[in-house]
Design brief:
Layout lengths: L2 E7 L7 E6 L7 E10 L2 H8 L2 H6 L4 E2 L3 E9 L11 E4 L2 E2 L5 H4 L10 E2 L11 E5 L3 E3 L6 H4 L2 H11 L9 E4 L3 H12 L5 E5 L2 H9 L4 E4 L5 H7 L6 E6 L4 H9 L1 E9 L11 H6 L3 E4 L7 H11 L8 E6 L3 H10 L4 E5 L4
Parallel strand pairs: 11-12, 11-14, 12-13, 14-15, 15-16, 17-18
Antiparallel strand pairs: 1-2, 1-4, 3-5, 3-9, 3-18, 5-6, 6-10, 7-8
Bound molecules: nicotinamide-adenine-dinucleotide (NAD) and zinc ion.
Zinc ion binds next to helix 3.
């Protein structure tokens, strides 16, 4: 059986190991993809670190990773729309296809979703097998570095475009890779002001490059002061929670205008109380975001990139896959945006 390199959680303990494992065999409805580039997600770091969530969730051995771009290497006999060499990425949530939401065309709300690189083999490998339903044909004119970030860009897009953006004032809490990409998306969609908060100056600098009107280091400055600086009087129209920090959610509620819209992507990891009276009296709308819409979000990302959206300032590091330890280390340091691992020699 042909072998390939893959980053595998082989043992239930911190770490990841570069292993030789069999190239996946494909079924009639599958596409075999030769992986060119992958990017590291916070989820991958949790799996590397073997935190409580990972211990509960990840069966070992497991090839991890879900942010990738590659080219079609082989197709199953039922696959007619892809040919060898096509540039493709993939949606990391594999929906069941049969539940009530799947049947109604709302696959992002499938209750039996499987996660690529979480509970089915992932993309940190020379090859990945994807079901045809989850393969996204990429515009080959878009740079591979950008395409390999489509999964997190999809989170940013799905969240930032949850509500009307044109002429609106945005507050984004958390300047991680997703908050920074959401900044650029909100601007592209016509927001007036985009104020971004974090406690990490390195990341606030990236947010500026991505188009933030003002950045706020909440350790030293307040969002109220930012409003004053911009001449705002009534609070933000749209807020995006992208830090996973409960305090950031409180700051959103404290700075929202009446009738404000709030989208929550951040995972708090614990029960988080809010004052519901503020929500009720101020007529706030809160919605949650999980994943991306299949495939509306993917279409929107493509057309925004084709019409000038630039996310390249968020890509800060590139490593060969054999240097993955350095990649994970820089992710853990917080002194990074997106970190890319290369799987082919260029
Ligand atoms: P990240 O952890 O890289 O970034 C979060 C940022 O928030 C960090 O830069 C951190 O310094 C900052 N932060 C911490 N405390 C803060 C505070 N009080 N105020 C403002 N900022 C603060 O995460 P990411 O990869 O950019 O993802 C953003 C969030 O979205 C994470 O919570 C992640 O778990 C979550 N996520 C959710 C989905 C989903 O489908 N719902 C998908 C991907 C990621
Ligand atoms: Zn389903």
């Amino acid at each position: 059986m042909e072998k390939m390199k893959a980053l595998v959680k082989t043992r239930p303990e911190p770490g990841l190991w570069l292993e030789d494992i069999p190239v996946p065999s494909i079924g009639i409805d599958d596409v075999l993809i030769k992986v060119h580039k992958t990017s590291i997600c916070g989820t991958d770091v949790h799996i590397y670190n073997w935190n409580e969530w990972a211990r509960k969730t990840i069966p070992v051995p497991m090839t991890i990773g879900h942010e990738f771009v590659g080219t079609v290497a082989a197709t199953g006999s039922n696959v007619h729309d892809f040919k060898t060499g096509d540039v493709v990425s993939g949606e990391g949530h594999v929906a069941c296809g049969h539940c009530r939401n799947c049947m109604a065309g709302r696959r992002h709300l499938c209750w039996k979703t499987q996660g690529v690189g979480v509970n089915r083999p992932g993309a940190f490998a020379e090859y990945i097998r994807m079901p045809i339903t989850n393969v996204w044909y990429c515009d080959p004119k878009i740079p591979m570095d950008v395409l390999c970030c489509f999964d997190p860009l999809g989170n940013a897009t799905h969240t930032a475009l949850s509500f009307d953006a044109l002429g609106e004032d945005f507050l984004i809490t958390g300047a991680g890779p997703i908050g920074c990409m959401a900044t650029a998306v909100a601007r592209h969609a016509g927001a007036r002001y985009v104020v971004v908060t974090d406690i990490n100056p390195y990341r606030l600098e990236i947010a500026k490059k991505m188009g933030a009107t003002l950045t706020v280091d909440v350790r030293y400055e307040t969002i109220q002061d930012a409003q004053k600086k911009l001449g705002m009087k009534e609070g933000f129209d749209v807020s995006l929670e992208m830090s996973g920090n409960p305090e950031a959610l409180q700051s959103i509620l404290a700075n929202a205008c009446h009738g404000s819209k709030i989208a929550i992507l951040g995972i708090f990891g614990r029960e988080t109380a809010i004052n519901w009276d503020v929500v009720v009296f101020n007529g706030l709308t809160i919605r949650s975001i999980y994943g991306r819409e299949m495939y509306r979000t993917w279409y929107q990302m493509t057309s925004m990139i084709q019409s000038g959206l630039d996310i390249t300032p968020v890509i800060t590091h590139r490593f060969h896959h054999t240097e993955y330890e350095e990649g994970f280390e820089v992710m853990r340091s917080g002194l990074s945006g997106k970190v890319i691992l290369n799987w082919i020699d260029e």
